Amino acid sequence: MAANPSPLRRFPAVFMRGGTSNALVFQPRDLPTDAAERDAVFLAALGSPDPGKRQLDGMGGGMSSLSKACIVSVSDRPDADVDYTFAQIPVNGLRVDYSANCGNMSSAIGPFAVEQGLVAVSGNEAVVRIFNTNTNKIIVSRFTVADGLPVIDGEFVNPGVAGSGAPIRLDFVQPGGAATERLLPTGATRDVLEHPNLPGPITVSVVDATNAAVFVDAESLGVSASITPDSMEADTALMERLDLIRRLAAVKAGMAPDITAAARIPGNPKVALVGPPSAYCLTSGEAVDADGVNILVRMLSMGQAHRAIPLTGALCTATAAAIEGTVVHARARPVDAKKNGGAFAIGHASGILPAVADVERTAEGTWTANSAGVFRTARRLMEGNVTVSAARVADLLGRSRAEAAE
């Protein structure tokens, strides 16, 4: 009688926090070479799909910011040290999304590369050049090291993360056109979207810097940009309208041929409600003064309201604010060089995120984003093997292939 195969499959991985996200981080040598099988492993490892949206049978946390995977390897490119691929794992779905990068998890890639020995460092600062394969963009990560390893403890507060840590600076080089190859995908700073299921014509700005995002004035949808994530998700009519706006914007930007196809890329573009600076309360209950922010933003991804703004969303917001004519520029308070180190302060549900963007307009009137930067913290949480059910992987693989064939 043949021996029964092991009911579990084991994959070396590191569980890391990057900014306000968590992800399993792998090296490609430890994953299946077949892309569909690899995605089935990711789904099983995170505990997806889960109709209850808790992912209790995996490492996911029941929301898009906590349901992610990264693949990191030494790069063959002369301008990069490592290659990094980001995978957004649906909480309740089968389609793994590779259409965009995760800026928060980008902050974990440099420390991971150093800790794994993929990049050699000397002195007290590491500079890791990261090539993101999702967007074909270079990210430069800078952080302090001691005895050849990343320093973890520090005084920098990453809004949305309890406590403090050592800062990691991320500079996204030439971030424009990460998803669409154009900083302004529609060719305009503003567009008007119309559909019978919208309350009327809605003016938006679609900007693609580190990730594509569609920005809409919150007041045009009858809400405040200080709305809480829980209140957003409880308002089903608002959530449906925002997803419709996302799909219409995807078509307008050339990311999908129609709104039905746009539904198949739920992670791109992001959707952002924006509003002028005003006093509001964080999810922690702490009060924020209007003078401390340049704009208010509430962002959605994968059909969920973010508790803290995604890093790429923050960089895209700062870039959009520097482009005259956008919805963001119209609602933002200009940057004061004496406040926040001259950074653009974004008020989100969990805190204030300062971001910088170097944007210029050519004599011909074309807008160019030279760079965008921000600070985050990151930490290795667990290391070893992630285990998945062999039968579960086989089932997910079969279901995913059946869905793709439909």
Radius of gyration over C-alpha positions, nearest whole angstrom: 21 Å
| Low-confidence runs | none
Q: Could you state the order of secondary-structure elements as H and E?
A: EEHEEHEEEEEEEHHHEEEEEHHEEEEH
Query: What gross morphology would you assign?
Result: globular
Helix content: 10-25%
- SS-based class: alpha+beta
Q: Can you give a write-up of this model?
A:
With 406 residues, this protein is α+β, with helices and mostly antiparallel strands. It is 21% helix and 33% strand. It has helices spanning 35-46, 103-115, 229-234, 236-252, 259-262, 311-321, 327-331, 390-405; strands at 8-18, 21-26, 68-74, 82-88, 125-132, 137-146, 149-150, 168-173, 191-193, 202-209, 211-217, 270-275, 280-281, 287-288, 295-301, 304-305, 344-348, 351-361, 367-376, 378-389. The chain has an 18-stranded mixed β-sheet that branches. Strand 1 (8-18) and strand 2 form a beta hairpin. Helix 1 packs across helix 8.
What's the helix and strand layout?
Blueprint: E1 8-18, E2 21-26, H1 35-46, E3 68-74, E4 82-88, H2 103-115, E5 125-132, E6 137-146, E7 149-150, E8 168-173, E9 191-193, E10 202-209, E11 211-217, H3 229-234, H4 236-252, H5 259-262, E12 270-275, E13 280-281, E14 287-288, E15 295-301, E16 304-305, H6 311-321, H7 327-331, E17 344-348, E18 351-361, E19 367-376, E20 378-389, H8 390-405
Parallel strand pairs: 2-3, 4-5, 11-12, 15-17
Antiparallel strand pairs: 1-2, 1-20, 3-4, 5-6, 6-7, 6-8, 8-19, 9-10, 10-11, 12-15, 13-14, 15-16, 17-18, 18-19
Helix pairs in contact: 1-8
